[in-house]
Amino acid sequence: MAQSIRSVVMRGGTSRAVFLREADLPDDPIERDRIILAVFGSPDRRQIDGIGGADPLTSKLAIIGPPRHDEPRAKGTHLTYTFGQVEIEHPEIDWLSLCGNISSAVGAYAVFEGLVRPVSPTTIVKAFNTNLSRVLTIEVPVENGRPMEAGDYVVPGVPGCGAKILIDFADTAGGATGRLLPTGNPVDRLDVPGFGALEASLVDIGNAHVFVRARDLGLAGTESAAEIDRNSELRALLERIRGAGAVRMGMIPDAERSREDSPATPLLGIVSPPAAYRNDLTGETVAAADVDLVSRLMFMQQMHKTYAGTSTVCTGVASRLPGTLVHEAARPHNRLEVRIGHPAGVIVTETAVEPDGDAFRVHRATLGRTARRIMEGYVFIPDAVAASPGH
């Protein structure tokens, strides 16, 4: 008889994830990953034999566990949260990254599941993220003891509107590499095979990122995701740039193995000054006056259709760091909010950074999202997987 595991499917921002409990999965990492791949139906480009969505934005996983009292940084947290980016066509799971969109759903999930005491109008959820060993502070709107889903907050790329959930990623600065600026430099020169020297800003908050100028790649910066994806030579170059940045940050030893060893992080941002462009989803024009900079993002070897949550906070923080390419591209202003133009509209982050000796301290790096519980029930593991040796 096929094994069943309780699961919850939730949308968080522009992503969707399967939520599983840590206690329901094998302790052995190899067996755990085998079960998870079966849940999603990977490897298969359609994920037809599982509940994955056959797209990087819908092939995501959240494993929720109890608080880790033996971890000093986890003191005072309500739960642990492990994010997994499940590969679609390869039998792999990337455990090195963090998804900001799904982090919003973690907050709502915690209230739904009774992992925190609900407080109206806002319940604060402290989640210890095991990928970065850092704490996320998630503000969940609550009414009558339940997370609110209806509201008037709009997330570009998500139909309709919902209740605003706010996630503060300030504690994740340096989570992947140890420092907000991993090399200590606002700009580094990367030696990219087949291209040559290229200036890049390497920044680590939310997830590690490599930022490059659009003009240095012969781009305007306002191209659609589909336009860039159609250019296979450009996509290959972008992956080589990402790999070179990953090596410079000490994340991987070999740039040529970037897709195999760390396919999700660092993310690659292509930045340019404010400009008008066409919204891919609505066909309307995004005015240059409505953005502080424009960025296009590569995620999992293809262009992001909107903009990743962790990339939002990283781009916002980078825009406050003098000397970075993001700071160079951004419109100067004194507002707390930074407005980032992406293929499907504009995303906003609240950013507060101050100098701290020869480095910087991040006091606020927020992302506003909406989340909704879509399904809860049991997912069945194929007999051949459940009966495998060692399971």
Secondary-structure map:
Blueprint: E1 3-12, E2 15-21, H1 29-40, E3 60-65, E4 79-86, E5 93-94, H2 100-112, E6 122-129, E7 134-143, E8 146-147, E9 165-168, E10 188-192, E11 196-205, E12 207-213, H3 225-230, H4 232-248, H5 258-261, E13 267-272, E14 277-278, E15 285-286, E16 293-299, E17 302-303, H6 309-318, H7 325-329, E18 337-342, E19 345-356, E20 359-369, E21 371-381, H8 383-386
Parallel strand pairs: 2-3, 4-6, 12-13, 16-18
Antiparallel strand pairs: 1-2, 1-21, 3-4, 4-5, 6-7, 7-8, 7-9, 9-20, 10-11, 11-12, 13-16, 14-15, 16-17, 18-19, 19-20
Count of extended strands: 21
Distance between the termini: 14 Å
Radius of gyration: 20 Å
| CATH-defined architecture of the largest domain | Roll
Put simply, the count of helices is 8
CATH superfamily of the largest domain: Diaminopimelate Epimerase, Chain A, domain 1
Beta-strand percent range = 35-45%
Q: Structural class of the secondary structure composition?
A: alpha+beta
Q: Average pLDDT value?
A: 95
Family: Belongs to the PrpF family.
GO molecular function, one term: isomerase activity
Keywords: Isomerase
InterPro entries: PrpF-like
